[in-house]
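Listing S7. Sequence submitted for prediction.
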Amino acid sequence: ESAAGETVRSGLHHVSIALRRGQRIALVGPSGGGKSTLLRLLAGLYAPQAGALAFDEQAAEWGRLRQIATLIPQETEMFEASVRENLSFGRPCSDERIEAALYASAFDQVLAANKSSLDSPLSERGFNLSGGQRQRLCLARGVLAAEGSTLLLLDEPTSALDAGTEARVLERIAAAFPEACVIASIHRLSLLDRFDTVLLMEAGRVIDIGPRDAVLARQPLLQRMVAPAAAASGTPL
């Protein structure tokens, strides 16, 4: 779908990647390695100082990314309003679309457990929700905003969830966007098998990108990162 060329802005160096529709990419690497910066670049929030962008081998302006990409961050603002209003921001939005987004984020389970509805009130900043529940609601908001996007960017939006819920949410979001390229920055490397591709970053550079098993086999850095999760689960590398 797109290829990002060399860039040196905001700590990224000589980044070159190619993305395709339907791809599921796990973005991994040490903290401070440039993962969030790369996601913001791909979201079109800023253009690099150097480099080129292409769609289907046709040169394009960097601003086009804003037309096709949606970035879902870890957490965003919540307001003293209903669940529905926090999702729609007053825009016309059918209950069917909202419920589909709530299912994708697994926030439907929160409503069911609390015997709440779309019209149930939320306190300012979502203080009547746990951190994980706030993340799920923000994910639902992102899913609604991403309708029609062909590039979905997730910046550790499930970091406050337990492992089982996180896996369920990633599976549901992938199913909700079957034709989109989904790139997710993840902190639980036990979830790598949910992705067909691994993009490994360190110090602002793309160290490797390719099929999960191939990258794992040739990258000691990824092997060291995965080892604790593999040991905990009893799964061999």
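Caption to Listing S7: primary sequence and predicted structure tokens for the chain studied. The CA atoms of residues 7 and 50 lie 5 Å apart. Residues 2-233 form a domain with the Rossmann fold fold (CATH 3.40.50.300).
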